[in-house]
TrEMBL record:
Protein name in the entry: Thiamine biosynthesis protein ThiF
InterPro entries for the chain: ThiF/MoeB/HesA, ThiF_fam2, ThiF_NAD_FAD-bd, ThiS-like_dom, Ubiquitin-activating_enz
Pfam family membership, one: ThiF
SUPFAM superfamilies in the record: Activating enzymes of the ubiquitin-like proteins
Domain (ThiS-like ubiquitin): residue spans on this chain: 7-63
Alphabetized UniProt keyword annotations: Nucleotidyltransferase, Transferase
Length: 274
């Protein structure tokens, strides 16, 4: 009888030895028979597939609350290989927790950024609910506290630092100390200018991603990411700010926010050409 060759694979991010004739389904039956979802090399499969050396199989049971390590492994499994490790090492600052900032923070959390620093002095108001990632029972809460609680529901193990203050020249550097990247998420033009000037002139090793133009319901395709300098990127359409007859609405605000987060990922993965 011929001996079956062995291969080394990862099951839920732990190395195991498998037979060369093993399949995704046979591994499921061996390690987690009650799992509902099988992810092979970052892609959810519905039909059985033969396995090969260095494959990654992730087994998920729906409704099961994972441990910290299990959650991390699940995030690794769904990301492109190598991306999660780079994101986990990063520290990203978010200046403002309104329409842009709350959407940015949630996407950063879902991507697995290791540490987030969020600064805002305002409270959640009913008018914010048209575009900001808050709920009726958040009204009256400080935005930084409300978004921290929401992020903890997404990933209770991530590091979140909040600052309940108004950012100006005297505190920008201390608030965002050691951040790899800072995202400007203000409505106020003066605040945008102050933050940008301070970061670009006094924090020259830090990347800045700023925003301009995301109001109304104009074409989604007008919103772009532009490289301004080697450390400075600008997201938005550059034209359509909030004005009478053209308010800030959830779709384009969220599109711009996610342009900004995607640029964070590209920078951290050293894909810094736009």
């Amino acid at each position: 009888m011929l001996e079956v060759a062995k291969i080394k694979i990862k099951v839920n991010e732990l190395y195991v030895e498998a037979d060369s004739n093993d399949t995704a389904f046979s591994i499921r039956n061996k390690y987690k028979k009650d799992s509902d979802v099988i992810v092979l090399n970052g892609f959810q499969i519905k039909e059985d597939v033969p396995l090969k050396e260095a494959d990654r199989v992730t087994l998920i049971k729906k409704g099961e609350i994972p441990t910290e390590k299990e959650l991390e492994n699940l995030m690794i499994a769904r990301h492109t290989p190598g991306v999660f490790e780079k994101l986990k090492k990063s520290k990203v600052g978010v200046a403002g927790a309104g329409g842009l900032g709350s959407n940015i923070a949630i996407s950063l959390a879902r991507m697995g950024v290791g540490e987030i620093v969020i600064c805002d002095y305002d409270v959640v108001e009913p008018s914010n609910l048209n575009r900001q990632q808050y709920f009726i029972d958040d009204i009256g809460k400080l935005k930084v506290e409300a978004i921290r609680d929401i992020l903890k529901k997404i990933n209770p193990f991530m590091n979140i630092t909040i600052h309940k203050l108004y950012l100006d020249k005297s505190n920008i550097k201390s608030v965002f100390n050691d951040c790899n990247i800072i995202l400007e998420a203000f409505d106020c033009p003066i605040c945008k200018s102050t933050l940008s000037n301070e970061v670009l002139t006094k924090m020259k090793d830090t990347y800045l991603i700023a925003s301009s133009g995301m109001a109304g319901y104009y074409s989604s395709n007008l919103i772009q990411t532009k490289k301004i300098t080697s450390k400075f990127y600008l997201c938005g359409d550059g034209v359509n700010g909030a004005k009478e007859g053209s308010g800030l609405m959830a779709p384009r605000v969220a599109i711009c926010a996610n342009h900004m987060v995607n640029m964070v990922v590209r920078i951290l993965c050293e894909e810094i050409d736009v």
